[in-house]
Amino acid sequence: MIRQQELHVATDGRGTYDLTQMVQAAVADSGISIGSCHVFVRHTSASLMLCENADPAVQHDLETFMQKTAPDGDPMFTHTAEGPDDMSAHVRSILTTSDLSVPVTNGRCALGTWQGIYLWEHRLAPHQRKVIVTISGE
Amino acid sequence: MIRQQELHVATDGRGTYDLTQMVQAAVADSGISIGSCHVFVRHTSASLMLCENADPAVQHDLETFMQKTAPDGDPMFTHTAEGPDDMSAHVRSILTTSDLSVPVTNGRCALGTWQGIYLWEHRLAPHQRKVIVTISGE
Amino acid sequence: MIRQQELHVATDGRGTYDLTQMVQAAVADSGISIGSCHVFVRHTSASLMLCENADPAVQHDLETFMQKTAPDGDPMFTHTAEGPDDMSAHVRSILTTSDLSVPVTNGRCALGTWQGIYLWEHRLAPHQRKVIVTISGE
Questions:
Q1: Separation CA B119–CA B135 (nearest Å)
Q2: Which of B34, B49, B105 is opposite residue A94, by nearest beta carbon?
Q3: Quick check: A70 contacting B, CB < 8 Å?
Q4: C95: nearest CA in chain B?
Q5: What 3-state DSSP class applies to C35?
Q6: pTM
Q7: Contacts of C106 (CB under 8 A, 6+ apart)
Q8: For residue B102, what are the CA distances in angstroms to B53, B112, B138, C76?
């Protein structure tokens, strides 16, 4: 059995957005009790991650790490059509992931206690992001 | 339903190779209309990515970023049996991904407008790369 | 058909642990001959990777690379509740992956000759890690 849903996520610009409840709701709606839940972001300047969900400092520090590793406006970048956060957003997306799967067990994503599913907006400006959730199983 | 195909990709050495058309053709051949398409590279010195497909400068800049982050011949590396691009290729593979999945909707990979599926050859010399595409769904 | 198993991996602290045999055994147990095998780590300070399986120097060099890129105790990190290897472990997890899938062909994971499936423990102290393996196919 396959069930698919598109989620619409309005971001306020750079930062992390917790999708866990929306994804768990899609799994509950599917009626699937065992299998996998695939999450996919249809963009190349926003990405996904499974991240610690308890201390907001973790996400703050991940942002700091990325600003050091792939700084906005780095003069080595030539793809700057949309501004200084254009190419850095692509690099950040490549270093994290555009898709992830979580096992479904007993009708729920079998996340660890401290795991949340996050969309990471890498552009500075607000964006409308589309995420496709595909649940497959029995 | 499951359909599986092995793609053979001849690379001319380091750089990105657009697999989007080959993968979409495998999905079309499968007859599957809804589900997932999994792409897997059977190597540890070439990887996959979903990347911006319009401006070649993006891929050029990603190359520049990797050459800075994991430079060939970095003296900190001890695994140098196959030359200065041996260990850097493994690092680049680990930082990107060896497998990715894309949702299948209406018989096609539901990529975003600006997303393409790329193989990233990290070795300097030409290689023959094997990629397995597995489509599952209904 | 879906088969799911939880693996328990006791680590001795930071380093890589080869899961290939355990995962291949789970695939063999499943009776599935074609499809996909999904591996998922239920933690945010240990991750997974597909890595070169022949020369231990590769894993040594990956450790060196991570120690340079995301050093323990970096003063830029504020999330330090569990010590200097707390935030660096989250960064290392984000840069690698929490989940991966391998195609199943003829009842086995269709890994390349030099590919192994590894758990990468990023914390210095020993931990008990849970890994869920989900095999789907026919």
A1: 18
A2: B49
A3: yes
A4: B95
A5: strand
A6: 0.98
A7: C33, C34
A8: 16, 10, 15, 36
- Pairs across A and C, CB distance < 8 A: 85
Q: Residue A78: which of B35, B61, B112 has the nearest Cβ?
A: B61
Q: Which two tokens stand for residue A31?
A: 């009626």
Residue for token digits 């800075």? B68
> Over the stretch A33-89, which tens digit does the pLDDT of each residue have?
999 999 999 999 999 999 999 999 999 999 999 999 999 999 999 999 999 999 999
Q: What is the pLDDT of residue A125?
A: 98
Q: What's the complex ipTM?
A: 0.97
All residues of chain A having their beta carbon less than 8 Å from the beta carbon of residue B69 are 69
**Distant-in-sequence, close-in-space partners of C115: CB < 8 Å, separation ≥ 6:** B42, B43, B44, B98, C50, C51, C52, C53
Average pLDDT rounded to a whole number, residues B15-24: 98
Q: What is the pLDDT of residue C112?
A: 98
For residues A87-92, average pLDDT: 97
DSSP C10: E
B91 touches chain C (CB under 8 A): yes
pLDDT score recorded for residue C131: 98
CB spacing of A64 vs C81 below 8 angstroms: no
Confidence at B118, pLDDT banded by 50, 70, 90: very high
Long-range Cβ pairs for the range C107-112 (8 Å, 24+) = C107/C27, C107/C28, C107/C31, C107/C32, C107/C33, C108/C24, C108/C27, C108/C28, C109/C20, C109/C23, C109/C24, C109/C27, C109/C37, C110/B40, C110/B42, C110/B132, C111/B42, C111/C20, C111/C50, C112/B41, C112/B42, C112/B43, C112/B44, C112/B130
Residue A87 at interface with chain B, using a CB cutoff of 8 Å? yes
